Amino acid sequence: MLIAAAVCPHPPLLLPQVAQGAAGELDGLRAACDRAVAGLAASGPDTVAVVGCGGADRVHGSDAAGGLDAYGVPVRVGEGPPELPLSLTVGRWLCDRSDLRPDRYVEVLPTAAPRECAERGAALAAAADRVALLVMGDGSARRGEHAPGTADRRAAGFDAAVAEALDAADTAALAGIAPALAAELMAGGRAAWQVLAGAAAGAWLGGGLLAHESPYGVGYFAALWR
Question: Measuring CA to CA, how many Å separate 4 from each of 60, 91, 115, 136, 207?
Fold first, then answer.
């Protein structure tokens, strides 16, 4: 049964060694993520999984490592050859900062259908009596002229709705996000959030939004459900 969940974004710049001189720009977001993960650890889970999108549908072991060479910085998170996608690499880094040791890292295709995501989440929630999830996902990457994608006037409203759902622990709202719209708005967290919605179905969890920012034209959220 799901007893707690944290939601965090996964920009490479969240890691100070990647951001370097710009590290201070994300201090508030980084602190909010730390609070979310610390709250997850304090919930007393029997098992912890980190969920994030990547290029395959698979599960990585507790010792899986990641790297950020693709972003021009030779940063390693964990030991061994890097196998985790960006979302789970940042997730592991956040867990390491809070001394939280996940049992598995769950990689989900960003194109996974809502029903598949719900089923994946339900299976994760059934893994133990007390399950905690760290769910990694970014909002729209089309917020403003400096965004990675062309600015789209729908992006801010889309992210505001996601923020409201995360604040209220509204699983129906997350489950109802249209994959096509999320793809058009370059919202990379849609599938991971819908895994969370599936895991939380039937659970009595209160939500709390800790951060909602878009410093680089991308929506970033931090939230804690418990």
Answer: 21, 16, 22, 14, 10
CATH number of domain containing 118: 3.40.830.10
Q: Which domain holds residue 210?
A: 2-225
The answer to whether the beta carbons of residues 164 and 208 sit under 8 Å apart is no
Q: Tokens 């972003």 belong to which residue? A: 71
**pLDDT average, residue stretch 145-174:** 97
> What is the number of domains present in the chain?
1
CB 75 within 8 A of CB 68: yes
* Per-residue three-class SS string for the chain: CEEEEEEECCCHHHCHHHHHHHHHHHHHHHHHHHHHHHHHHHCCCCEEEEEEECCCCEEEECCCEEECHHHCCCCEECCCCEEECHHHHHHHHHHHHCCCCCCEEEEECCCCCHHHHHHHHHHHHCCCCCEEEEEECCCCCCCCCCCCCCCCCCHHHHHHHHHHHHHHCCHHHHHCCCHHHHHHCCCCCHHHHHHHHHHHCCCCCCCCEEEEECCCCCCEEEEEEC
pTM for the complete prediction? 0.96
Q: pLDDT tens digit string along 45-61?
A: 999 999 999 999 999 99
